[in-house]
Write a structure and sequence with these properties.
With 98 residues, the protein is mostly beta strands. The chain has no helices and 10 strands.
């Protein structure tokens, strides 16, 4: 069984979850407060709050920036949902999603 590491839940800063983006707001920087114990983050951006695989526009698990990330994705105008989860290289991630 892998080691389980306790990681705090990151807090979202901006943009607001469910925010509407206009095409003039490119690029979009996703920002969060660093989570204690996190060595990397998984950032997900979706067109729906369900985060179904088919709705994910960003599913990046290798984000090592500690407080924000520019996905490089051009978003069309509309509402988007996002979440981030901290992880550690030493063991299984057991943190909740923010």
């Amino acid at each position: 069984m892998p080691n389980q590491i306790s990681i705090a839940v990151p807090s979202l800063i901006a943009p607001a979850n469910g925010a509407s983006f206009a095409t003039t707001q490119q690029p979009i920087l996703f920002a969060w407060y660093a989570a204690a114990g996190a060595e990397y983050y998984r950032l997900q951006v979706s067109k729906t709050s369900a985060f179904a695989s088919a709705d994910l526009l960003v599913n990046n698990g290798g984000v090592t920036a500690i407080s924000g990330f520019d996905t490089g994705v051009t978003f069309t105008a509309g509402a988007y949902y996002w979440r981030v989860r901290g992880g550690a290289f030493a063991g299984e991630d057991v943190a909740a999603l923010a």
